[in-house]
Amino acid sequence: MKPVVRALADAARLLSATSDTARLDAELLMAEALGIERDRLLLAPPNGPVPERFAAMLERRAAGEPVAYITGRRAFWNIELGVGPGVLIPRPDSEVLIASALEHFDGGGGGGGEGKGGEGGPRRILDLGTGPGTLLLAALDLWLDATGIGVDSSEAALDYARANAARLGLADRAEFRLGDWAEGISEKFDLILCNPPYVADTAELGPGVLEHEPPEALFAGAEGLDAYRVLAPQLPSLLAPNGLAAVEIGADQADGATALLCRDGLACRLANDLAGRPRALLLTWV
Q: Cα separations (Å) of 52 from 4, 36, 46, 56?
């Protein structure tokens, strides 16, 4: 029987042909197969046999299926979310929206792992295009007095969002609605979070993305700006005084998104992701 350490090395070599993160992928899959956290796998690899299901998981990853779909979970900021086919997998780049909200309300910021938000945080939060509840649930985990609404056009995504809220103990503060962006919503929110589709229809994506993740959560017209055109007239009427709307953008969309969203008295500034690329447009009242 092959030991775990050797199986990991073999798996990483196999996945190197199809993945830029072959070793990490192998470790995440092995930890899931063993039912332990990756940290424990790395610090004290078990001496027992490799679980039989690891081979099947490895085969799925080699065929291009995302690791998060195989394990059924993805970490984001301070929380872990259940994910699966039909829902967009949370990306680390999106954490800049949460970091920007922390900076706006609490004077904090930084990356994932920050502590809870302060007493001056948002009380009402709106997450447009919530997917599995990613941004809303991360924000509610930070600001314990806040409540919020997550909207998505996909019932499959909302099923994941509701299940995630329940598992995280946030179901009593999170409401999830099927909808078309902010249509039918009239109240004002202290914090608006939005990660809309922003990929141009002809853009090339990484391996496994187009084949597995929902296209409606990725693509937004010839320039990738269609969702911003819908959001632009909605956001001003939804944002409360002293509030913040944080909208994710593509790294090459700063000019186009700014031209669309900075209107009706809203001031805009850009926030960069960890790679230094423009990743969010932050809207506040002048």
A: 12, 15, 15, 8
255 burial (CB, 10 Å; 0-12 / 13-18 / 19+) is exposed
The amino acid occupying position 186 is S
Question: Structure tokens of 204?
Answer: 């090339």
CB atoms within 10 A of CB 260: 19
Distant-in-sequence, close-in-space partners of 76: CB < 8 Å, separation ≥ 6: 90, 92, 94, 95, 112, 134, 138
CATH level 2 (architecture), domain 82-285: 3-Layer(aba) Sandwich (3.40)
The CATH architecture of the domain made up of 4-63 is Orthogonal Bundle (1.10)
pLDDT of residue 109: 42
What are 100-122's pLDDT values in tens digits? 999 999 875 444 445 566 668 99
Residues 275 and 148: their CA atoms lie apart, in Å, by 30
Cα distances (Å, whole numbers) of residue 187 to 138, 144, 256: 21, 21, 28
